[in-house]
């Protein structure tokens, strides 16, 4: 059982690692959306709580002012029915006092009312009346009244002394809020239209139960709504991961097929290029083999050293050709490295004197302007042959002139340590279409299977300039360019940095 669980856990971890790039993005997106939902919920809840608090305060103040207004109106109506000069019997006086006490005590029965009294300003003091007998004595006893204890209404007297001028001037209700729940209401007391004081009430209306009920219901709704959204996000996350899993599976199968197809295409292309290179170099090797046979026929005691030197060069080139037939891409250390020290001037002179002049001396002339300051290069001499020979052969084959002149020039600039090799002819030049650049910035004459001559009947035409360009730029690190001369013919320019 434990082994099964470990295997299952390993499969889950491997599956996660396999798709962690896509799933990681989905997790980030889900977390951002969930966090955003909670932030919105928090902000909305705070905003609603502020609305509830403000609404609760407004309703509490309105309720407090309504109670105070009702009390003041009751007292004023009761006083309006009695004349201040009217004489009352003892029983009538007790009835009036009882009515006043009922009004005072009735308000105190309300759990929200904490204190009630009538505040009457005097020249040197403020009278606080909270009893029916006191009010009766003040109104019907010629202004004399037993004053209530100032300790029980000290806060009311202090607030009234601060608001007295405003109340006398405007005769409007003024409410003072203390904290969040305590309201000090000052209602003008104007029996028979004459302002004599204010009805003061300390009221603490409590509507928190209503606010809490509304907030609780909203919280339940909000959490339910948020829960549904989060469940929906998790469902989308699950569906997305499953979709990505299937997509990656199909994509992987497609990539495998594409990889297989590209591998076959590359192998086929390499085989084709390899075949062309073998054909190209084999043709040169056949020509060199003919030179060796010819030299052996003319070998004498007088020219043995010269023939020996030529045959050694020829055989080394053929050995290089045979070696190249073994590889699509020969190792770089067999092409360039510190073991090679090739004099480019000597190599060019040998190619011209012992290859081209032996087969084209009747219709072509060669001019060599070689700079003796040219330094040696760390490149295999016989690979250099594979670069210069096709370019010189191109000048002979496609010049369109019965008397072709090929000029080879080498120059070395010691200041910038740069050598330039130019191979030019006096032929008809290169078609301007072949001097255009392709999408990768390479002139079309250097592309595979593009020829500067007439390709009719030549299966492997257009490969000489291509192989020279590929070896010079990719293996040697040189640059090569071609241009038409204003006076006619074309010029190939090789540039190398030492």
Describe the structure.
This protein is of the alpha+beta class and 498 residues long. It has 10 helices and 10 strands. Strand 1 (113-121) and strand 2 (126-129) form a beta hairpin. The chain is rod-shaped, with a radius of gyration of 57 Å.
Highlighted features:
five-stranded antiparallel beta sheet; 14% strand; five-stranded mixed beta sheet; alpha+beta; Heat Shock Protein 90
Q: Percent helix among the residues?
A: 55-70%
Count every beta strand, where a strand is a DSSP E run of 2 or more residues.
Answer: 10
The number of helical runs is: 10
So what's the CATH class of the domain at 30-206?
Alpha Beta
Secondary-structure topology with pairs:
Blueprint: H1 2-18, H2 20-80, H3 90-108, E1 113-121, E2 126-129, H4 132-140, H5 154-170, E3 174-178, E4 182-189, E5 197-203, H6 208-297, H7 304-324, H8 344-360, E6 364-369, H9 381-397, E7 404-413, E8 418-425, H10 464-476, E9 479-484, E10 490-497
Parallel strand pairs: 6-7
Antiparallel strand pairs: 1-2, 1-5, 3-4, 4-5, 7-8, 8-10, 9-10
């Amino acid at each position: 059982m434990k082994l099964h669980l470990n295997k299952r856990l390993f499969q889950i971890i491997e599956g996660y690692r396999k798709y962690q790039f896509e799933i990681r993005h989905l997790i980030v997106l889900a977390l951002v959306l969930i966090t955003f939902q909670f932030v919105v919920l928090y902000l909305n809840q705070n905003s609603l709580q502020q609305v509830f608090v403000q609404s609760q305060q407004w309703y509490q103040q309105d309720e407090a002012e309504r109670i105070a207004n009702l009390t003041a109106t009751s007292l004023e109506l009761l006083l309006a029915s009695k004349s201040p000069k009217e004489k009352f019997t003892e029983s009538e006086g007790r009835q009036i006092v009882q009515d006043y006490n009922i009004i005072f005590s009735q308000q105190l029965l309300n759990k929200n009312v904490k204190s009630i009294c009538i505040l009457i300003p005097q020249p040197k003091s403020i009278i606080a009346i909270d009893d029916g007998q006191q009010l009766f004595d003040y109104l019907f006893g010629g202004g004399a009244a037993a004053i209530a204890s100032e300790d029980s209404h000290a806060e009311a007297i202090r607030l009234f002394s601060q608001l007295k001028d405003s109340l006398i001037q405007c005769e409007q209700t003024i409410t003072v809020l203390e904290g969040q729940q305590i309201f000090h209401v000052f209602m003008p007391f104007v029996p028979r239209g004459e302002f004599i004081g204010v009805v003061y009430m300390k009221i603490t209306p409590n509507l928190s139960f209503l606010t809490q009920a509304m907030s609780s219901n909203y919280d339940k709704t909000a959490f339910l709504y948020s829960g549904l959204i989060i469940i929906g996000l998790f469902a989308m996350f699950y569906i997305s991961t499953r979709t990505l899993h299937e997509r990656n599976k199909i994509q992987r199968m497609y990539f495998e097929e594409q990889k297989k197809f590209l591998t076959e295409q590359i192998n086929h292309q390499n085989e084709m290029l390899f075949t062309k290179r073998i054909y190209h170099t084999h043709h040169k090797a056949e020509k060199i083999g003919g030179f060796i046979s010819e030299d052996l026929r003319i070998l004498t005691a007088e020219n043995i050293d010269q023939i020996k030197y030529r045959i050694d060069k020829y055989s080394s080139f053929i050995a290089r050709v045979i070696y190249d037939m073994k590889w699509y891409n020969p190792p770089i250390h067999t092409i360039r490295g510190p073991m090679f020290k090739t004099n480019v001037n000597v190599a060019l002179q040998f190619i011209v004197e012992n290859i081209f002049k032996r087969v084209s001396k009747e219709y072509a002339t060669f001019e060599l302007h070689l700079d003796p300051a040219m330094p040696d290069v760390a490149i295999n001499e016989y690979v250099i042959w594979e670069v210069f020979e096709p370019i010189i052969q191109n000048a002979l084959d496609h010049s369109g002139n019965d008397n072709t002149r090929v000029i080879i020039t080498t120059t070395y600039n010691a200041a910038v340590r740069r050598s330039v090799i130019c191979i030019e002819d006096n032929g008809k030049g290169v078609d301007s279409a072949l001097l255009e650049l392709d999408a990768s910035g390479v002139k079309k004459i250097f592309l595979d299977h593009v020829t500067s001559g007439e390709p009719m009947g030549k299966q492997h035409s257009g490969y000489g300039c291509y192989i020279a360009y590929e070896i010079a730029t990719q293996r040697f690190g040189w640059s090569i360019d071609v241009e038409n001369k204003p006076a006619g013919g074309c010029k190939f320019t090789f540039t190398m940095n030492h």
